[in-house]
Amino acid sequence: MALVGRLLEAQGFRVGIISQPDWHSAAAFKALGKPNLFFGVTAGNMDSMVNRYTSDRKIRSDDAYTPNAEPNKRPDRAVIVYAQRCREAYSDSSIVIGSIEASLRRIAHYDYWSDKVRRAILPDSKADLLLFGNAERALVELAHRLAKGVPIAEIRDLRGTAFMVPHAWRPDGWEEVDSTVVDTPGAVHAHPDPYAMKTETPPQANPGTHPVRLVSRAERLAQHRNLRAHTAVRLPSYEQVRDDPVLYAHASRTLHLESNPGNARALIQSHGDGTGQRDVWLNPPPLPLTTPEMDYVYGLPYARAPHPAYGSAKIPAWEMIRHSVNIMRGCFGGCTFCSITEHEGRIIQSRSEESVLHEIEAIRDKTPGFTGVISDLGGPTANMYRMACKSKAIESSCRRLSCVFPDICENLNTDHAPLIQLYRKARALPGIKKVLVSSGLRYDLAVRSPEYVKELVTHHVGGYLKIAPEHLEPGPLSKMMKPGIASYDKFKAMFEKFSKEAGKEQYLIPYFIAAHPGTSDEDMLNLALWLKRNKFRLDQVQTFLPTPLALATAMYHTEKNPLRKVTAGSESVAVIRSGRQRRIHKAFLRYHDPNNWPLLREALRQMGRADLIGNGQRQLIPAYQPAGTTTTRKPQLRSQPPPRKS
């Protein structure tokens, strides 16, 4: 909200922010009077459902984004509730929704918390416009147009926006194609053999033909680009994806294939039947910010402190990041369980050295309590700074879902030199004692630059470095789009070598996900045995949480694999649904906890692996149960989930 407020302020607008208003009536939404241009509504820096509920759908006891971590200060599905209250407060005001929660619900989506497919957020919120992704360009343009008196209902050409229109509405000169024609979710036909020797019958001369001008390749490409730029892809309707898992997985696949700003087409999805039928229209994603534009946004006069109205209250999320610096945006990893791709996109947007160093100096000079330690110099991924495709032409035409899976693309520039230089300049600033790197690290990229790993390990690790292999078995890794464990082993060897050379005792802390789609009980058992062999005892573990729009969520809901063409007979994905089985998978990650031993003993017996129960070095858990620890009922464990009821 600080970024949005300062950005609009810099454009000459006055901005009022009503933080965590009491949503039980419209009174709190009238605090600043009727807005001149629009109400801008978000759920905050985190999705309200993810923020309030655990992966087991239990309500969390605290909220890291609220003063003193007080819970229950925001409603469930906050964007919808806030937008409705804004409409009640001033019925004729324009309402614009955006940020993470709105972005992830811009089309019909599976909602884990209600276990059903919900409509796109626009018809439920009754908002006039949705801005998805990092929307600085659209936000500034929208504000200026509204200030000039342009009705919001006429603003239909901004990239990164979505809105409701009458069914079959199209701008002049636009064509519509059906997504089931673009990527047919039907029978899979064999591709023609390019090596087959086939005799062609020469065409017979026709006396009525006339010479035809040959069209150059450049002209054909130009015509194709112009056609794509004015083509909208119609997704299956809300009602269709609600009722048909194959069409849901197909729609998810189509949305992700149309996510590259260089070649993405507009998307349409119908909601409702008969006279009430309307379309959600999504324009192509926003263009990434250039480095000067990023510098401008991050160089605005931020206070770098919570609002004075909060007094001495502690805000945990602020305490964690107040001495950190965001150096880039986006991630080309494409991990299927992660929402970064859906929100920030795959193209890396980097700040300049000067901008980053200036912010470090601002932290040093302005932030109370600064001790000389920058807690993080990173972003969504620690080491993708300044990385990009070697060719703009290739980048703008690419439709890959990941630049690093199944292998690192040969067109990807993986040079870590700019980041190494930034690290060195940052820690050389006067008054800076230590610069840590705490963001997620892509170790499969890092191992391509031993110099970077040495720089990181020698100067920027505070005793522990967290990385995320997520799993080691090929089944779940293929559904996550994560690299194999060989990359981890290579990075671990480098980490230990350079730590020893630096005379430092440092440790890798790996993160793993339990119960991810595509994971079997045997996969989790093998991971537990690997953890024990490597003497890892994990304190915090993550159970898969299906977030809206993620590809892994489509797998969870449909039991289909949208990474490939989806048909009724295409690849099925094993899904872990029952609470007990999810707990078993989580217990394997914490095999060392005596409270999990009764559950694991029964699971191992049912898997035919009772040989792993005992006190031997190669056994997973002991046969005895310490006094005072938990006992549990016999689990109902399955290697595969039962068929879903229609």
Q: What class would the helix/strand composition place it in?
A: alpha/beta
Question: What Rg do the Cα atoms give?
Answer: 27 Å
CATH architecture group name of the largest domain: 2-Layer Sandwich
N/C terminus separation: 43 Å
Under CATH at level 1, the class of the largest domain stands as: Alpha Beta
Largest sheet: 8 strands, mixed
Helix content: 25-40%
Q: Average pLDDT across residues?
A: 90
Placed side by side, the strands forming the largest sheet appear as 1-2-5-6-10-9-8-7
Rough outline: globular
Descriptive report:
α16 runs parallel beside α18 and α18 crosses α20. The chain has an 8-stranded mixed beta sheet. The chain has a 3-stranded parallel beta sheet with strand order 17-18-19. The chain is α/β, with parallel strands linked by helices. 33% of the residues lie in helices and 11% in strands. The chain has 4 domains: 164 residues; 73 residues, no CATH class; 171 residues, Transcription Regulator spoIIAA; 132 residues, no CATH class.
List the helices and strands and how they pair.
Blueprint (H helix, E strand, L loop, with lengths): L1 H9 L28 E3 L6 H5 L25 H12 L5 E4 H5 L5 E3 L4 E3 L2 H5 L3 E3 L4 H12 L13 E6 L8 E4 H4 L34 H13 L1 E4 L3 H6 L1 H13 L8 E6 L6 E5 L8 H8 L17 H6 L2 E3 L1 E2 L10 H5 L4 E2 L2 H14 L6 E2 L1 E3 L13 H6 L19 H11 L6 E2 L7 H4 L3 H10 L4 E7 L3 H7 L4 H17 L5 E8 L6 H13 L8 E2 L7 H8 L20 H11 L7 H10 L40
Parallel strand pairs: 1-2, 2-5, 7-8, 8-9, 11-15, 14-16, 17-18, 18-19
Antiparallel strand pairs: 3-4, 5-6, 6-10, 9-10, 12-13
Helix pairs in contact: 10-22, 16-18, 18-20, 21-23
